[in-house]
Inverse folding.
């Protein structure tokens, strides 16, 4: 690689006045390009890619689970800024991860274009003539026969043609040259090109697509129409535009769950189904669809998925003046398979003081003497109950900061206590009401509604990606299982008879051509026996 | 038959297949033990050096003083080898009964991969079945004791630590894409595992190629091991591609609304894929073929089994939460963490 040092007496042309060992910019570029597109670099980049993917499976990822990520952040206040700077919370969009796969792609392009040209030319040339000494090849066989050389070669010709070898036509030669497996290289090129296609498809989805989630109550009174303001969470690609959103709307008329009633998972939900009424556009006809897990609804390029469900107890709060300050179904989020759920109610308008409730909902409540607390037996609402603590004071909702509806800011509040100092807890079954002490008002549990978590997504380019991987697989099969090989048969007069030499060469490095030679020898000799008998 | 009867049939069959694997292992150990002192005949080595993979060299050796002396023991080891193979075939058949029983015991009937126990049962079955199927084609006699020991120990781990009673599948798991996905993933896992074993033996053989007797000496030549390993990987890689890059995303798209989520399970399936792509490249790159390629194959199999077992314990990201933004939502659509192929 290094240029040997020369003395100043060099006879180099005068315009070349650089110092020894120095590369011109062009040479440097060419050298870099050659390094970048070498197999070895591709190999190292592949290993780097594998390595770089690891942290994202261990550190919670923003795009995968933002709640986990924010919990992790608050648990590790010192590490988080460092991780943020390194992009460790979104590894797969980070500059260093992108750099690796972009380099790999450049390397890939640089590698396959020259190879494509090379193989395109190679496709059309005849198999190379037999080497002078066939017995030097690692896989060869020789035998003597009484059959004349011409007849042997003719038979070799016919046999190899039957096996779909390409043969070189060379009249008067003492050998047959044959080759097969040209499509292996094509397969390999298709595979590598298809990797690029997949990446394009994947990239389109990431850039132009979106994914959003909404929790929607079951019932004709509630509905969803597809625009940004209606989503609870929304994750658009960087080139996404609102105008790409299709103007459909839907409501959930009915929701049914099939509960398991026996076996080790008794009490858990197995199947569930939402009966949707939807319109593809505001003036369009109304249609219905049964939305189930694994059965999304497609509307144009958008798909609607059912991914979760839960309960929404209808809770009403009246304040000290007897005014209704909060009333409605309140979404509680399930925390386990028994649908024990947590939720929050906020009544900032209550007088004389704001009221906040925080607690659990149990679809089928039971009491554990062991832990001294309630739990849920199973997810079916056989004996539902809410159990909540009461907070009074400033709920922190007036300073304009957005707050999660699922959590209570307790900094400005005090928890209501009983005379003995124990927390004041309200336990309500449907239809029940309690009056809060100190003239604060009352709380009632009026009924139970259900909600569904619906995910809406648009993934442009997914068909490109799918076609890409399928092509890649086909190319791969060609590249791995088509065995490129060359075979030569030479027949020469030798004494009274003929000396036949057969040799084969595997060009893929994975093949096993000894068997090919043996088979060919058998085939060539086969008719001999018939002649003799 | 009732579900309970099917379940007990399955449990019974698992125990029976374990016992038969154990017998097969004993027979193979006896086979190799009787060969321990016998030097590999020079003639045999020469014969085996033609491009024919594997085989216990003893049977192929030409006559000679030493060979004739050992003819009796040669016949005995050959018999033991064949008996061991037949026992393995029997064990695989019994294990199949166990799998079918497991599926029939559920209500409704289903594929036998609802939990880790069933996965491990299926995985070991595929490893053993692939070995049995490829035994003649690739002449895998030399692999016998290792494969049988591997399958037996993993099966024991499954029975002792992973056993779980029969339960129905969660809804997201009852999709035919999942069935195809898991079948492909498990088959690829079987092929990669056999390939990994071969690559490990390649590394051992390469270091100890001058041994004259014993198990190592009777392994096929490194080139042959390398080629057998390549062919196993070349079979496994497209199947894995089909499983994790085609059917997996199709299923994920149906169940979770997005075909690739960078979920830890997916990330590791991708890592495995990339490592095996690197292995295939390494085999054609000067300076990497042979030793380094074999090491890559072992890295590949490590990532594969880590994904199968380890990731559930290491990852802090729950498999259950695909819904960004909604806190602590139980995702009925998400399968058990262990049920992702
Ligand atoms: C995304 C990155 C890449 C992937 C996933 C990939 C994958 C593969 C696979 C699976 C094979 C196996 C085919 C076989 O063994 O016959 C292969 C072969 C090959 N790859 Fe790549 N490759 C990548 C990038 C590259 C790059 C950048 C180069 C250029 C240096 C390259 C050059 C080759 C060559 C020359 C072969 C043929 C080996 C043979 O004939 O057996 N690959 N590639």
């Amino acid at each position: 690689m290094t240029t040997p040092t020369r003395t100043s007496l060099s006879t180099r042309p005068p315009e070349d006045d650089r110092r020894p060992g120095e590369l011109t910019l062009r040479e440097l570029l060419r050298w870099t390009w050659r390094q970048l597109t070498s197999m070895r670099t591709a190999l190292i980049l592949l290993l780097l890619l594998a390595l770089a993917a690891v942290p994202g499976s261990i550190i919670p990822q923003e795009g995968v689970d933002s709640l986990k990520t924010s919990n992790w952040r608050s648990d590790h206040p010192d590490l988080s800024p460092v991780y943020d700077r390194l992009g460790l919370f979104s590894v797969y969009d980070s500059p260093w991860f992108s750099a690796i796969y972009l380099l790999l792609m450049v390397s890939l392009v640089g590698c396959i274009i020259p190879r494509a040209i090379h193989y395109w030319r190679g496709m059309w040339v005849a198999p190379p003539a037999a080497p002078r000494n066939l017995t030097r090849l690692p896989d060869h066989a020789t035998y003597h026969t009484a059959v004349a050389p011409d007849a042997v070669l003719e038979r070799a010709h016919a046999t190899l043609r039957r096996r779909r070898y390409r043969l070189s036509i060379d009249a008067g030669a003492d050998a047959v040259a044959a080759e097969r497996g040209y499509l292996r290289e094509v397969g390999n090129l298709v595979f590598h090109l298809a990797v690029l296609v997949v990446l394009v498809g994947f990239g389109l989805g990431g850039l132009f697509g979106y994914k959003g989630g909404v929790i929607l109550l079951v019932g004709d009174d509630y509905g969803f129409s597809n625009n940004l303001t209606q989503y609870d969470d929304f994750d658009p690609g960087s080139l996404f535009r609102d105008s790409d959103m299709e103007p459909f709307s839907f409501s959930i008329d009915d929701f049914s769950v099939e509960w398991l009633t026996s076996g080790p998972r008794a009490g858990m939900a197995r199947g569930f189904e939402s009966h949707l009424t939807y319109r593809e556009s505001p003036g369009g006809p109304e249609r219905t669809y049964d939305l189930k897990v694994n059965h999304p609804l497609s509307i144009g390029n958008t798909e609607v998925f059912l991914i979760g469900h839960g309960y929404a107890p209808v809770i009403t709060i009246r304040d000290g003046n007897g005014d209704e300050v909060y009333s409605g179904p309140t979404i509680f989020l399930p925390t386990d398979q028994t649908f024990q759920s947590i939720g929050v109610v906020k009544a900032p308008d209550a007088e004389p003081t704001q009221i906040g409730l925080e607690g659990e909902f149990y679809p089928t409540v039971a009491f554990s003497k062991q832990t001294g607390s309630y739990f849920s037996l199973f997810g079916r609402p056989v004996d539902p109950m809410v159990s909540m603590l009461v907070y009074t004071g400033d709920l922190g909702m007036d300073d304009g900061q957005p707050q999660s509806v699922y959590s209570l800011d307790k900094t400005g509040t005090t928890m209501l206590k009983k005379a003995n100092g124990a927390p004041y807890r309200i336990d309500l079954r449907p239809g029940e009401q309690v009056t809060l002490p100190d003239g604060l008002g009352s709380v009632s549990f009026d009924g139970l509604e259900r909600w569904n978590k619906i995910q809406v997504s648009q993934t442009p380019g997914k068909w490109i990606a799918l076609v890409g991987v399928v092509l890649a697989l086909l190319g791969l099969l060609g590249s791995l299982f088509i065995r490129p090989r060359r075979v030569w048969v030479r027949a020469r007069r030798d004494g009274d008879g003929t000396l036949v030499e057969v040799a084969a060469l595997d060009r893929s490095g994975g093949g096993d051509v000894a068997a090919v030679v043996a088979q060919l020898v058998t085939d060539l000799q086969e008719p001999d026996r018939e002649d003799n008998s | 038959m009732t579900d309970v009867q099917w379940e007990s049939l399955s449990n019974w069959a698992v125990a029976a297949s374990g016992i038969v694997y154990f017998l097969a292992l004993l027979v193979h150990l006896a086979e190799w033990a009787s060969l321990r002192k016998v030097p590999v005949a020079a003639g045999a080595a020469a014969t085996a050096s033609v491009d024919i993979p594997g085989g216990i060299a003893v049977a192929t050796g030409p006559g000679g003083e030493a060979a004739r002396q050992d003819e009796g023991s040669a016949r005995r080891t050959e018999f033991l080898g064949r008996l061991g193979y037949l026992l393995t075939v029997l064990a695989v058949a019994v294990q199949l009964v166990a799998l079918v029983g497991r599926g029939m015991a559920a209500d409704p009937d289903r594929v036998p991969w609802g939990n880790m126990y069933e996965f491990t049962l299926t995985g070991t079955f595929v490893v053993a079945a692939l070995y049995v199927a490829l035994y003649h084609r690739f002449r895998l006699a030399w692999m016998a004791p290792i494969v049988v020991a591997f399958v037996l120990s993993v099966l024991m781990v499954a029975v002792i630590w992973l056993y779980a009673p029969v339960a129905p599948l969660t809804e997201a798991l009852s999709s035919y894409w999942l069935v195809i996905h898991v079948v492909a993933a498990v088959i690829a896992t079987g092929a990669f595992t056999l390939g990994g074993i071969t690559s490990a033996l390649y590394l051992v053989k390469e270091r100890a190629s001058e041994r004259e007797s014993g198990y190592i000496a009777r392994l096929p030549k490194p080139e042959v091991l390398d080629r057998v390993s390549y062919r196993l990987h070349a079979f496994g890689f497209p199947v894995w591609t089909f499983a994790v890059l085609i059917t997996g995303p199709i299923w994920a798209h149906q169940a979770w609304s997005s075909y690739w989520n960078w979920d830890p399970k997916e990330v590791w399936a991708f890592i495995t894929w990339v490592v095996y792509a690197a292995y295939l490249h390494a085999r054609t790159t000067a300076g990497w073929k042979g030793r380094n390629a074999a090491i890559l194959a072992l890295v590949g199999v490590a990532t594969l089994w880590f994904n199968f077992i380890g990731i559930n314990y290491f990852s802090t990201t729950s498999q259950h939460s695909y819904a960004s933004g909604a806190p602590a939502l139980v995702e009925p659509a998400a399968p058990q963490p262990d049920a992702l192929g």
